[in-house]
Design brief:
Elements: H1 15-23, H2 31-41, E1 46-49, H3 56-66, E2 77-80, H4 84-97, E3 105-108, H5 114-121, E4 127-130, H6 132-141, E5 151-155, H7 157-160, H8 166-173, E6 181-186, H9 191-199, E7 205-208, E8 219-225, H10 231-242, E9 246-250, H11 254-266, E10 271-274, H12 280-292, E11 297-300, E12 313-318, H13 325-332, E13 342-348, H14 353-363, E14 368-369, H15 375-396, H16 400-412, H17 415-426, H18 487-490
Parallel strand pairs: 1-6, 1-7, 2-4, 2-5, 3-4, 5-6, 8-13, 8-14, 9-11, 9-12, 10-11, 12-13
This protein binds adenosine-5'-triphosphate and magnesium ion.
EC number: 3.6.4.13
InterPro entries: DEAD/DEAH_box_helicase_dom, DEAD/DEAH_RhlB, DEAD_box_RNA_helicases, DEAD_helicase_CshA, Helicase_ATP-bd, Helicase_C-like, P-loop_NTPase, RNA-helicase_DEAD-box_CS
Family: Belongs to the DEAD box helicase family. CshA subfamily.
Length: about 500
């Protein structure tokens, strides 16, 4: 039987979920959905591993909601996610899936007023989506009781079972009846972590969507070898040349993220940073602005690496090389989602090259080398984009209003000079604004310690104190229209799942 050709109906969805799924624009199940939904509906424990952006949320969300008895008042399912933003996003997706069934879902995360959460809990949600620290807090206060829970999900399971979270997860699970169903999902599942996971499960089925590589084929991956000090100028040149619709720049530390977002702003980009030391209100408003396109560049620590699904992210820049292959996979997976294409650029200093090799070994995918662009290349490619834009405006012939001034200018100056001045005006030349970033020590390869990504992270760092822990060389032949953030193209409701290039 070819599971890939199954329809949602054939997977056994009830009519209210069929309605929701079609309203969400899902035409057919993605491979991970086709393979895990039937198992999960049979109450099996499942470890689901599939590439980033391939629909794992609905793969657990659909069976989870099918199993909710809306007449029953107790909490029936709990999804645990490593960051607040992800908890919110997953709860929104579950809300959509359960909309016609009228199941109630509540996100619970740190940084939000606990009394408000307690009031919401009194409205008897069927499903809670939470971060570990705040969930435990409620369990200890007895404002959340898990004795009626029949389904537990760990989204980003390897991260949740990592050093920083394992104790919290163990405590949460000890409050859930042992006959529960446990579902674990992630794009990465290092063996040592999978072995820990199996301790919490009963005869789990491992569903691993067959893929040659750990990353999706529709992300083109490059590395740029450069010195630490040159990184920032190279980043701005790449932004000018590649003109992303939305871009995420990952930095290693919170300080790095602050400095980078300030520096980008100084140089005229609309950029904001997100990391764990910011208030929850600030984190949420930054993310909202980024989703709406009011910010073009989101600068982030790994707090934004896992699970976030933001349409329109066309480029990911690893300003600092990620510490381990898993982090790399999740970071670049913020682009190239649901069959769309994306580009990932990783900056490496010569001393960090072994990290790139280690990443390539783990992902089974080579990155192409990209030569850092020069200033001249950056200007030239911008000029070409400006010319394309001018051509399209000329063709639209909507210029009557400007023609008189144009004539006046042409009486005064030579035509070539006028056009050159206009081009110069529209081109962003290298800025004279001084920018100083504090040097980061080079990353060290953790290949010998594969199973424990980010094991140096403080326990609970992500959500307690809130945080994030610690080709074409020139892509200038793109139609200008690509940059246009027209709602229509991004919000097209028909979403066909495909992973091909
Ligand atoms: N069957 C489908 N058809 C079309 N689009 C889908 C389908 N299932 C999910 N999607 C959409 O694909 C996008 C990615 O899904 P999702 O966030 O669940 O990916 P993921 O596998 O969890 O990725 P990550 O590993 O980064 O967490 C979302 O916008 C989601 O709504
Ligand atoms: Mg996910």
């Amino acid at each position: 039987m070819n599971t890939l050709t199954l329809t949602f109906q054939e997977l056994g969805l009830s009519s209210s979920l069929m309605q929701s799924v079609s309203k969400m624009g899902f035409e057919e199940p993605s491979p991970i959905q086709a393979q895990t939904i039937p198992l999960a509906l049979q109450n099996k424990d499942v470890i689901g591993q599939a590439q980033t952006g391939t629909g794992k949320t609905a793969a657990f969300g659909i069976p989870l909601i099918e199993k909710i008895d809306v007449k029953n008042e107790g909490i029936q399912a709990v999804v645990v996610a490593p960051t607040r933003e992800l908890a919110i996003q997953v709860s929104e997706e579950l809300y959509k899936i359960g909309y016609h069934k009228r199941s109630r879902v509540l996100p619970i995360y740190g940084g939000q007023d606990i009394n408000r959460q307690i009031r919401s809990l009194k409205k008897n949600p069927h499903i809670i989506v939470g971060t570990p620290g705040r969930l435990l807090d409620h369990i200890n206060r007895k404002t959340i009781r898990l004795n009626t829970v029949h389904t537990m999900v760990l989204d980003e399971a390897d991260e949740m079972l990592n050093m920083g979270f394992i104790e919290d997860i163990e405590s949460i699970l000890s409050n859930v009846p042992p006959e529960r169903q446990t579902l674990l999902f992630s794009a990465t599942m290092p063996d040592p972590i999978r072995r820990i996971a199996e301790k919490f499960m009963q005869n789990p089925e491992l569903v691993k969507v067959k893929a040659k590589e750990m990353t999706v084929p529709n992300i083109t991956q490059y590395y740029l070898e450069t010195q630490e000090r040159k990184k920032f100028d190279i980043l701005t040149r790449l932004l000018d040349i590649q003109s992303p619709e939305l871009a995420i720049v990952f930095g290693r530390t919170k300080r790095r993220v602050d400095e980078l977002s300030e520096a980008l702003t100084l140089r005229g980009y609309t950029a904001e940073g997100i990391h764990g030391d910011l208030t929850q209100a600030k984190r949420m408003s930054t993310l909202r602005k980024f989703k709406e396109g009011a910010i073009e560049v989101l600068v982030a620590t790994d707090v934004a690496a896992r699970g976030l699904d933001i349409s329109g992210v066309t480029h990911v820049y690893n300003f600092d090389v990620p510490q381990d292959p898993e982090s790399y996979v999740h970071r670049i997976g913020r682009t190239g989602r649901a069959g769309k294409t994306g580009m990932a650029m990783t900056f490496v200093t010569p001393r960090e090259m072994d990290i790139v090799k280690n990443i390539e070994r783990t992902t089974k995918r080579k990155m192409d080398r990209m030569k850092p662009p020069t200033v001249d290349e950056a200007i030239e490619s911008q000029q070409q984009m400006t010319v394309e834009k001018i051509r399209s405006i000329v063709e639209s012939d909507n210029l009557a209003f400007y023609k008189r001034t144009a004539e006046e200018l042409l009486e005064e100056f030579d035509a070539q000079v006028v056009v050159a001045a206009a081009l110069k005006f529209m081109t962003k030349e290298p800025s004279a604004v001084e920018v100083k970033l504090t040097d980061e020590a080079p990353a060290f390869s953790k290949s010998k310690n594969k199973g424990r990504s980010s094991s140096n992270r403080r326990r609970g760092d992500y959500n307690r104190s809130g945080s994030g822990g610690s080709g074409a060389k020139k892509n200038n032949n793109r139609a200008y229209g690509d940059r246009d953030r027209s709602k229509g193209s991004r919000d097209n409701n028909k979403r066909r799942y495909s992973n091909s290039k």
